[in-house]
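Sequence dictates fold. Next comes a concrete instance:
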Amino acid sequence: MTVPRLNPGGLTRGRLFIAALLSLTSCAPSHHDRIVVGSKNFTESFILGELIAQQIETRTHLKVERRFYLAGTYICQQAILAGRIDVYPEYTGTALTAILKQNAGFDKQDVYRRVKSEYEHRFGLTLGPSLGFNDTFAMEVRGEDARRLDLKTLSQAAVFAPQWRAGFGYEFMERPDGYRGLAATYGLHFAEQPRIMDLGLLARALKDRQIDLAAGNATDGLIQALDLFVLGDDRHYFPPYEAVPVIRRQTLDEHPEVARALAELAGKISDEEMQRLNYEVDGQHRDAADVVREFLRNKGLVR
């Protein structure tokens, strides 16, 4: 099966953008009586959105509405600023570079503090606690290629890049902590212009040899399942990407119980646990709501 190739003017991405835009601009009644949880359009964000939703449902008496798969970072940011959603999962490094347009350091606590302070001052938003894992970008190659070429790092891979085809998500191509900076840092040059694909297609395209290097995430559930290898970021290009809930301050003022509920999620998910949750949904095709419910029960958060 041929993996669809998406370009900036592609029909598939255009439809997604229009659908997301309509969801933001359509008339909606006030939701003071409920909490609206959003997510981005990839598996991990969907799982984390469901985690936040179930935690609020379990620990409060509030109704929860789910508005998942709202395209990428910028759409989710506009949705929460417009009051269309109250909370969604974000990553500290993404918030700092893509939204705040600031250079990121490598101290995760400093990055968290800077994002929290700026979001409160500029947007009337705040951050919940870190959920415990760091989902940094992962430059992935096939495991067999890594073993054959004895590759461990991006610097080593740069030697072979002129013979390779790369595949990246649209947002990675555009954001300041994405492709252009990575290529400059490592001197990456590929056999052709990188293919722009839906995030959910990248791992399979890599395994099927339609591309030779992909920009995934460190907690991708299919890394082990498809025998992929994550190249080390030996020049420390990427900042920390701790997963955190972004929440409207007005929502917390009206419903302080939401803050107490989300505080219970602090540090609850390790890198390995997040990768397992992703695999259960992507690799085993389990229902995300069931996976989240089981996880919360195992953590003692659901009776």
Summary: Strands lie at 34-38, 63-67, 87-91, 125-127, 137-142, 166-168, 195-196, 213-217, 228-231, 243-248. The first strand starts at residue 34 and ends at 38.
